[in-house]
Fold this protein.
Amino acid sequence: MNVVVLLGAPGAGKGTQAPLLAARLEIPVVATGDLFRAAVREGTPLGLEARRFMDAGRLVPDEITVRLLLERLARPDAADGVILDGFPRTAIQAAALDAALTARGAGVGAAVLVDVPGEELVRRMSGRWICRANGHPYHEVSSPPRVAGVCDLDGSELYQRADDQPDTIRTRMDQQLGSLREVIDHYRAAGCLRSVDGLQAIDRVAADIDAQLTAAGIRGAAGSGRAAGA
Ligand code: AP5
Ligand code: MG
């Protein structure tokens, strides 16, 4: 079972890299932010509860987040592994993930930090557009869609996230960077932390993540760190 954790500050590029990596490793992406946004759209009790925290730029409480993640990991498509985008975000979540994986005789193979400094994070989030159907991210300057307002991959409408307003962006960074450091420390202590320079172009970041995973012994179903056919 390949479990790869993508770590990074809000706006670092986790959601951009995760599907590229999932295609190469042939395992699904599990992104807690996407799961929460789906619950908000559906108006479920969990979505209503999560929305209060998300709109305020704060982390959703661990108890709710861990339950959601463990339910998702129990689904059959996660049996061979997952790319985790946006989880764990606290030391408590990291310990809960370790316990759940240990119970399956597995563990986190690599935690890859996509490292991007603060000023660039603000630029990335404030220019971001996301597709309604699948959350594919675009940026109005650095990675615009071929047709304005339309997703290249699935044709759905692009929108700006409610938490990508300037005030909320600042709160997210203030509230969340401290706990990111806790999670980085957790994986450094576990000996599986790796880091890539997230300031590079998207394809360079992807290539560096591949190289780090290959060095960690994590390979796709085709037996290579690169995509089947790539
Ligand atoms: P979540 O959806 O996970 O948001 P986030 O962590 O704040 O991260 P983002 O999605 O904003 O950034 P990203 O790293 O995915 O960047 P992206 O690839 O889009 O969480 C939202 C909320 O849900 C949280 O605030 C919290 O309330 C709650 N939540 C979620 N998980 C939780 C948890 N585990 N515990 C508690 N609460 C939780 O890229 C950003 C932009 O940059 C895009 O426009 C993209 O096109 C562009 N870009 C990407 N890479 C590059 C590059 N290399 N060069 C130039 N531009 C680039
Ligand atoms: Mg994201």
The pocket of magnesium ion (ligand 2) is lined by residues 14-15, 33, 86 (CB under 6 Å).
